[in-house]
Amino acid sequence: MSNSPFNPPVRTLMGPGPSDVHPRILEAMSRPTIGHLDPKFIEMMDDIKTRLQYAFQTKNAMTMPISAPGSAGMESCFVNLVEPGDKVIVCQNGVFGGRMKENVIRCGATPVMVEDEWGRAVDPDKLRDALKANPDARVVAFVHAETSTGAQSDAETLCRIAREHDCLTIVDAVTSLGGTPVKVDDWGIDAIYSGTQKCLSCAPGLSPVSFSQRALDFVSSRNHPVQSWFLDLNLVMGYWGEGAKRAYHHTAPVNALYGLHEALVMLQEEGLENAWARHRLHHNALKAGLEAMGLSFVVPEDERLPQLNAVTIPEGVDDATVRGRLLNDFNLEIGAGLGALASKVWRIGLMGNACNRRNVLFCLAALESVLSDLKAPIERGVAIDAAMGQYTD
Amino acid sequence: MSNSPFNPPVRTLMGPGPSDVHPRILEAMSRPTIGHLDPKFIEMMDDIKTRLQYAFQTKNAMTMPISAPGSAGMESCFVNLVEPGDKVIVCQNGVFGGRMKENVIRCGATPVMVEDEWGRAVDPDKLRDALKANPDARVVAFVHAETSTGAQSDAETLCRIAREHDCLTIVDAVTSLGGTPVKVDDWGIDAIYSGTQKCLSCAPGLSPVSFSQRALDFVSSRNHPVQSWFLDLNLVMGYWGEGAKRAYHHTAPVNALYGLHEALVMLQEEGLENAWARHRLHHNALKAGLEAMGLSFVVPEDERLPQLNAVTIPEGVDDATVRGRLLNDFNLEIGAGLGALASKVWRIGLMGNACNRRNVLFCLAALESVLSDLKAPIERGVAIDAAMGQYTD
């Protein structure tokens, strides 16, 4: 085995995440490691909590990053809020709703599935019907921003319906946080999880979460212990809780948290509303370009996430060939389809730091070049013009 | 809230971990992020697996880092190898054996505790007796290197006894890997977990694990699904498994893995045996100095870990005052006692990159200065002389 270091290629990351990490965040992660119980580190943890409250638009005291990727953040919500024997309504409109179902089953609970077409938002009426048919349901779970399709659901309405039936809510905001409005308090969300590697422009590995007081009251009065020791909020709260006296739980990923801190500083510098507007602007430009190229979106316009653009692969064009050329010839990563959409769609991300004019134009130019070369019926230049039209309107 | 970046102080980390991270590793973590399904990234994953096999001294195919800290690595071993209703023998001689017990209970299984004094190695005879008294036990779990006390147990003997009774073994090697011999294949360990932030000199956040074929056979034929989706080896294997075709499971912590890769390159450059000898050398120097200062070790000499030195706090000396002065005046972190040993001992780490002559002499000089200032009966200079004697012998 050679002893050579790993020098990664410099890619442009326009898949479903990770997205391009800002150089300031990369640099922050390389600062000297300090102890996870160091008073200076604990100050930084408090600062991260406050900044995450801003990102989630919440006053929830229990707002912090789980020391593991988004799928562990998902699991932290389920293992804490679901008890064996519970009934949980899971709205599924893509891959990640299916993962929620898996989580419910592994908690020893019963999932009641509310199915919507992949590529569509969750239908509130179906949730209403399911709650009427299942008055014993305790929790409602849904994905705000389906990373597998780019569909955005109306989290505010879904949470209101759940609350009318006295259910706690678990919301997947992995792809939405920082890219499109997420308003935990206004919408009355009880448990929410996200990821650092999407619209926060950070490296993957952490999962910001937030829990309402209602959720915490449930956790502290459960009948069964939380099945995960690592994710048991009763213990995690002692470490991430108030004040300087922290109970050791696990060793926090110190340098990854430096990165998240810097990402949150940058979010505050830009301002949440400005970040949302930026994602909308560049989405409009990319959309205009892709449509001018003849590509059609999977998701109807009013249910579409600006930061994740799923488009149908043209007839006769081979998915892997195109993505391979983009990666090898252009160092450009776009995403493949997942699950039922594998080989049928591309997922083009415009997330966080990767959401900028250079990337929009570069992606359109590269895609135009590859598709033309593969003899797809592309009229040259129209995509770039259409995109530029959105910037100059 | 201010928008200032977090500039950590530059500490010398001689607690129970994290230890000083080498500048090469800090730099590696700041390299450009690439996609977690990028072919170049998958090559690096394969390389990490091979290098971890070397670190663990194993041919186990399922050797990889869990994408979360050591406590999640521990949980990955228990949730996969333990089923509801199982009986698990847990040898406890410190804090982390207690955490193993918690894991067993949360898996719906019954722990049978084999208790040893804190600060002593696990007694193989007690394990033998427990196995005779519990012929239905399926798993034996113990801590190879108790981070709470610095005691090292005879993993080879304990595993042999467990195998004679047809039990699978789960071994905590968080503090031992890279600092003292860990021989997974020779010792017949079935499941082992470690951390990156100890003797591998890496930032905290990942947990290297290894599973024997016997363990994997069990996992794939379980009666109940693994209760954790995130840690289910049946799924993790699809992502970290053989070949270029990886099934998406979770988004790997890309930059943290760059750091681990570099740490493993450095381990290979030095050579495992040399790393073990280095830890032994500097331990001998530190020990000579601490004893010359009148401090006594918690653990008997032949059961002592070189990389974690627990010493009794002298009568009349206040724990927090000393650690506070070391941190504030010297930027030196040493560890407090945990659990039953809180306020009674200090834990001085000599792990990985932090295990060097400069740190030994600096720590002794700083401790001598603070203790003298607090009127402890310290003869000046003897500690330094005693330590230097070990280097010049």
Short structural summary:
The structure is a homodimer of 393-residue chains. Chain A is of the alpha/beta class.
Care to describe what's here?
- Two copies of one chain form a homodimer.
- In chain A, 42% of the residues lie in helices and 15% in strands.
- Chain A has helices at 23-29, 39-56, 70-81, 95-106, 124-133, 155-164, 184-187, 213-220, 233-240, 254-270, 272-292, 319-330, 357-373, 382-392, and strands spanning 12-14, 62-66, 87-92, 110-115, 139-143, 145-146, 151-152, 168-172, 191-193, 207-211, 308-312, 332-336, 345-349.
- The mean pLDDT of chain A is 96.
- Chain A has two domains: 22-268, Aspartate Aminotransferase, domain 2 (3-Layer(aba) Sandwich); 272-392, Aspartate Aminotransferase, domain 1 (Alpha-Beta Complex).
- In chain A, α5 packs parallel to α6 and α11 (272-292) packs antiparallel against α14.
- Chain A is globular, with a radius of gyration of 21 Å.
- In chain A, strands 2-10-9-8-5-3-4 form a seven-stranded mixed sheet, with helices on both faces.
- Chain A contains 14 helices and 13 strands.
- Chain A has 393 residues and is α/β, with parallel strands linked by helices.
- The interface between A and B is large, with 81 and 80 residues.
